[in-house]
TrEMBL record:
<keyword id="KW-0067">ATP-binding</keyword>
<keyword id="KW-0547">Nucleotide-binding</keyword>
<dbReference type="InterPro" id="IPR002698">
    <property type="entry name" value="FTHF_cligase"/>
</dbReference>
<dbReference type="GO" id="GO:0030272">
    <property type="term" value="F:5-formyltetrahydrofolate cyclo-ligase activity"/>
</dbReference>
<protein>
    <recommendedName>
        <fullName>5-formyltetrahydrofolate cyclo-ligase</fullName>
        <ecNumber>6.3.3.2</ecNumber>
    </recommendedName>
</protein>
<keyword id="KW-0460">Magnesium</keyword>
<dbReference type="InterPro" id="IPR037171">
    <property type="entry name" value="NagB/RpiA_transferase-like"/>
</dbReference>
<keyword id="KW-0479">Metal-binding</keyword>
<dbReference type="InterPro" id="IPR024185">
    <property type="entry name" value="FTHF_cligase-like_sf"/>
</dbReference>
<comment type="similarity">
    <text>Belongs to the 5-formyltetrahydrofolate cyclo-ligase family.</text>
</comment>
<dbReference type="Pfam" id="PF01812">
    <property type="entry name" value="5-FTHF_cyc-lig"/>
</dbReference>
<keyword id="KW-0436">Ligase</keyword>
Length: 186
């Protein structure tokens, strides 16, 4: 099995080579699949990342959540933790941790019941996730086990198998442009 560093390097190389237009077009297609899911439809609160460097774009999802009357929060890195802030306008976002868009204003929220939409570098068909190596989502989800979790990924981010550690928390659902993967027990 490939190590996490090797997989990250391969995925980052692919992400660097895809066009902005491709990312935009596929992100919209993928977002429509997510928005149609009951877990999104029934959520009153949505915790979602602000996309960066050819991740699945999230602006379409955020707008759909606002239009449906949902509250939306995005993360800000504070030390080794993430703090989610209420997002009511994209103007609240400015480059923060490693240049990732973060809220510079907005009420800090700590929801125990919400839908968390998370990024990742690579996934497998058992919903194991390789993140960026900081452990932010794993630590947050360990403290908030009641959250529903969905990860967004392009098809090229789905591998046959990725390494998984005991501290890794798998998303319940992964949505790509062509499929929706529901977590199966190992």
């Amino acid at each position: 099995m490939e190590e996490k560093k090797v997989i990250r390097k391969k995925i980052f190389a692919i992400r660097q080579d895809i066009s902005d237009q491709w990312v935009q077009d596929i992100s919209i297609e993928l977002s429509k699949h997510l928005i149609d899911l009951p877990v999104f439809q029934h959520a009153k609160k949505v915790m979602i990342y602000a996309d960066y460097h050819h991740e699945v774009k999230t602006d379409y999802i955020i707008r759909a959540a606002w239009e449906a009357g949902k509250q939306v929060a995005v993360p800000k890195v504070v030390g080794k933790e993430m703090v989610f802030h209420l997002l009511t306008d994209f103007k609240q976002l400015k480059p923060g941790y490693f240049g990732i868009p973060e809220p510079v204003s907005g009420e800090a929220v700590c929801w125990d019941e919400a839908l968390m939409i998370m990024p990742g570098v690579a996934f497998d068909r058992k919903n194991h996730r390789i993140g960026y190596g900081g452990g932010f989502y794993d630590r947050y989800l360990e403290k908030h086990p009641g959250l529903d979790t969905v990860a967004l990924a392009f098809d090229f981010q789905i591998k046959d198998q990725v390494p998984c550690e005991i501290t890794d928390i798998c998303p319940q659902i992964i949505v790509t442009e062509t499929e929706t993967l529901f977590r199966r027990e190992d």
